[in-house]
Design a protein that fits this description.
This protein is of the alpha+beta class and 759 residues long. Helix content is 35%, strand content 12%. It contains 22 helices and 24 strands. The longest helix is centred in the N-terminal third of the chain and has 30 residues.
Length: 759
């Protein structure tokens, strides 16, 4: 055993122990390492023996975090996302120059010693003593690898990372014990491979493959001598030797590595001298991390994929577990994004709404029957610039969207109509539909009744819009008073229940309001919600939950379970077919005429909210549904009057004149080349419209009526419809011509396409 020298000085072995930390070497000796003459260090070592023995025998190595690649439905790359940019490679895929360079500069005796290099300790001690400081360390590659494992395990927890790198006796003890285990279990080749994959090389690059791509835009297997020497020199201090920001210092460090390689006979002196004369030869690839780099404006789709991963229990029991799994990465995620549809959405957005306009637009397309979200875009790109956003305007708050969503206006009316049909109302149902009226009261709700205690009123868009109207015309003209009468007739509860069945939920996550005004779209929803709801009509009454992910392959090629779409019947097939028939009329000759697709059947509904702070068009074909919102992206909104959008001045913005054309162009491009499919429609015949002319009630005949009845009666011919007194009566106040147009003599009015006009 080593003893104190006469005069009280320390032996060289004891000086080495002091350099590394008394507890480290003392613990190592007592653990059985064959280190000479360090057992007489003294009582200070006793406590460290217990610490050493208490450390678990096995080093738990967490999976190394890697890049995750997000792909579209065709396999094209959307973006790469990562907590740490790393691509794990086998040692055979790393240049031999790189392997030799890292060993030469960091641990030249790597293949000769065990977990600790006593000669290296003594050499470092002498060097530091000569320099009067700590100019040279003595950690082996194995010890460095173990320390990096601790750092990796800490993840993005700054406190935990600092603890993993702390220069304390306790950490050194832990590091040494695990280094012993690693040397025993892995062997030199695997240790070197792991070290080169875990080490940080600066510029956000972890591992040699990512570093090679970052600095030289090539694979690690293709690194030449001087490139390998540069990378090997970085690991000691990636920021100090950063060749991008400090080329002169980086070159000096590279040349030091080259000389060291010559000194240990890995290369000749001539090779070192020749390499030192060469420039750095950088070919830097900028880091491309995250959804901000997504192609074709798919940044928000990319971000939604991340939100799905973090929120769905299929990927982990807790959000923390899911977050850790996402940060580890190494995933290949194939999504439902259709690149053609996405590009069409982006082209349409750019053509109609400028990035710096006072309002924004958001567009989402969904495939009926599968729930696949095939496109998602908005005019404010994903980013942090003055006209960028990180808020997904197409999504609910819980999935990265706005706090409250956006009022949807009249695009909610078809949900009310579907609920009414399910309640037994006929597709030719009429209500008096005056220009303005108080909200009917009381109205039944799921919780009891709603009463119009404040005397609130509702009116139509134009004073000329006054009924009565049948359902088809009320949808086509978007008659507010009609739908207020309809919801008061059937009650609020059937409407909110239908909405829920169609996946319509408020963007803020709260329950739907149990008020008659909900039929006018007063609650806030997201474009994704509305697109998927209308896909239920296209799918003949079957609602399918939206999905963004087709498949995920994890590290090692293992397939992960992914959430699947769940489909349930929301309404009868007959109701859906009836709604498709009715909503076709909206784009054929109603408010949505500007949105109608050419040479392809389509259906949909416009929507405009109070003060024109939001305008919508939601429509669909049998094989694709889409929603377009235009409005202010802030909480206060923008009143869209006398406003310029996409270079066009609008006196007033309607759902038909801005969202409609956006929808048309986006859908046309997305559907290009796909087969044309037809809706299953139903005949909608109004038995009251078929009555021949000449009776005393003022009805015209079907062709338009030669005689609508010269003396119209004073009775209401439809007892089940409540009509105001001024429209019941004979003579000039009677019902007008037939359902094919023409003039009848039952009154002064002219027959229109539906046969029901009032003066």
């Amino acid at each position: 055993m080593g003893n104190k020298r006469s005069g009280g000085g320390l032996s060289s072995a004891q000086q080495a122990a002091k350099f590394l930390g008394v507890s480290v070497l003392a613990g190592a000796v007592l653990a059985g390492l064959a280190l000479p003459a360090v057992g007489a260090i003294g009582l200070a070592a006793k406590g460290t023996v217990e610490q050493f023995d208490e450390i678990p025998a096995n080093l738990k190595t967490p999976p190394l975090s890697e890049r995750t690649t997000i792909l579209d439905a065709d396999g094209g790359e959307i973006a790469k996302v990562y907590s740490r940019d790393r691509t794990i490679v086998d040692l055979k895929d790393i240049s031999p120059y790189m392997r030799k360079a890292i060993v030469a500069i960091e641990d030249a005796r790597f293949y000769e010693h065990g977990a600790i290099d006593l000669k290296g300790v003594l050499r470092a001690l002498n060097k530091n003593a000569q320099d009067g400081g700590v100019s040279q360390g003595a950690s082996t590659l194995t010890q460095q690898y173990v320390k990096n494992v601790f750092v990796e395990e800490a993840g993005n927890d700054e406190k935990a990372v600092a603890e993993a790198q702390k220069q304390s006796i306790g950490r050194k003890i832990k590091e040494l014990k695990y280094a012993i285990q690693v040397e025993k279990e892995l062997g030199k080749r695997r240790i070197l491979q792991n070290y080169l994959n875990i080490t940080f090389f600066g510029q956000q690059a972890y591992g040699v493959e990512a570093a090679s791509q970052r600095y030289f835009s090539k694979h690690a297997k293709d690194l030449n001598l001087e490139e390998a020497a540069l990378l090997a020199g970085l690991v000691q201090s990636p920021s100090s030797y950063d060749p991008v920001n400090n080329a002169q210092v980086a070159k000096a460090r590279r040349d030091t590595v080259l000389q060291r390689m010559a000194d240990v006979k890995d290369i000749t002196q001539a090779q070192a001298d020749a390499a030192e004369k060469k420039p750095l030869g950088l070919k830097v690839s900028s880091p491309k991390n995250g959804c901000i780099t997504a192609v074709s404006g798919a940044g928000f789709f990319c971000d939604y994929v991340r939100e799905v991963f973090l929120n769905d229990p299929v990927f982990g029991k807790t959000r923390e577990a899911r977050s850790q799994r996402w940060d580890r990465g190494g995933l290949t995620i194939r999504t439902t994004l259709d690149p053609k549809a996405q590009q069409s959405v982006q082209n349409s957005i750019k053509a109609h709404v400028y990035q710096d306009d006072p309002v924004a637009t958001a567009v989402t397309l969904v495939e009926p029957g599968t729930g696949k979200v095939v496109a998602m875009g908005q005019s404010r790109p994903y980013g942090f610039g003055p006209h960028d956003l990180t808020i997904n305007l197409s999504a609910d708050k819980a999935m990265g969207g706005s706090n409250y969503g956006f009022q949807v206006g009249s695009t909610f009316k078809p949900i009310t109509a579907a609920a009414a049909l399910e309640q037994g109302k006929k597709p030719y149902q009429r209500y008096s539909s005056p220009y303005d009226m108080p909200y009917p009261s009381p109205v039944s709700t799921c919780n009891g009744t709603w009463s119009n205690s404040k005397g609130s009123t509702v009116e139509n868009e134009d004073p000329s819009e006054k009924g009565p109207y049948p359902l088809r015309e009320a949808l086509a003209k978007s008659i507010n008073t009609y739908f207020v009468q309809m919801i008061s007739d059937i009650g609020v509860c059937p409407v909110t229940e239908m909405a829920t069945k169609m996946g319509v939920q408020r963007a803020d996550g709260k329950k739907l309001n149990q008020v008659p005004a909900i039929t006018l779209g007063t609650d806030g929803f997201s474009p994704l919600t509305m697109a998927n709801a209308y896909a239920t009509f296209a799918n003949r009454g079957v609602y399918c939950t939206p999905v963004f992910i087709e498949s995920i392959t994890g590290p090692g090629g293992k397939d992960l379970e992914v959430p699947k779409s769940s489909c349930t019947r929301a309404m009868s097939q007959k109701t859906a077919d009836t709604m498709n028939t009715l909503l076709r009329g909206v784009v054929e000759d109603g408010t949505g005429k500007k949105a109608g697709l050419e040479n392809r059947p389509s259906a949909g509904k416009t929507g405009t909210t109070d003060e024109r702070k939001a305008a919508w068009f939601v429509g669909y074909t049998p094989n694709l549904a889409g929603a377009v919102w235009v409005g202010g992206s802030g909480t206060k909104g923008v009143k869209m009057e006398n406003i310029r959008i996409g270079g066009i001045l609008h006196d007033k913005v309607y759902g038909a004149d801005t969202p409609g054309p956006i929808w048309k162009d986006a859908m046309s491009g997305a559907l290009a080349g796909k087969p044309t499919e037809n809706f299953v429609t139903v005949p909608i015949k109004d038995p009251n419209a078929e009555k021949p002319g000449g009776d005393d009630k003022g009805h015209g005949d079907k062709p338009g009526g030669d005689n609508g009845g010269n003396n119209g009666g004073t009775d209401n011919p439809w007892p089940d419809i409540t009509l105001p007194p001024d429209v019941i009566g004979g003579g000039d106040d009677g019902w007008s011509g037939g359902n094919r147009g023409g003039n009848g003599n039952g009154g002064n009015g002219n027959g229109n396409s539906n046969g029901w006009n009032f003066p």
